[in-house]
Design brief:
With about 130 residues, the chain is mainly alpha-helical. About 75% of the residues lie in helices and about 0% in strands. Mean pLDDT is about 85; it is low at about 120-129. The structure holds zinc ion.
Length: about 130
């Protein structure tokens, strides 16, 4: 991979990581809010559930972004973690935190979809996008 490509992807990863950090602060407010009103409590509980699921998603994304940056430091970025073949630059430009080449990702998605049902397939699709 060209150095310019790597720099660009690193910038993208760092920007996404910084944006995730900014969201954490906002959501923390929602999570710790308390109110004596029952209706508000229901509303807050719903928001909390949503916030937690978003946080989980962001935590997962944050781990992927950090993992990608770490692989850049280690000089193994862009290598599929499953088959150790290079991941195409085109794929990395679309999904800079990709851990797997397209073939291994598709196999992994299919395995997840087969093992956990349609809902899981939907989740995988969202995470990859
Ligand atoms: Zn692979």
């Amino acid at each position: 991979m060209r150095h310019a490509d790597l720099d660009l992807l690193k910038g993208t990863l760092e920007a996404k990581l910084a944006a995730l950090g900014a969201n954490y602060d906002k959501r923390a407010d929602i999570v710790i809010q308390q109110t004596p009103d029952a209706l508000d409590q229901v509303q807050l509980a719903a928001e909390r559930t949503l916030a937690v699921s978003l946080l989980n998603r962001e935590l997962q994304m944050s781990r992927r972004l950090k993992g990608a940056l770490q692989r850049m430091d280690e000089g193994i970025y862009g290598t599929c973690l499953a088959c150790e073949e290079p991941i195409s630059v085109k794929r990395l430009q679309a999904v800079p935190w990709a851990e797997l080449c397209l073939g291994c990702q598709e196999r992994s998605d299919m395995a997840a979809a087969a093992g956990l049902g349609a809902d899981a397939a939907h989740t995988v699709e969202l995470e990859v996008a």
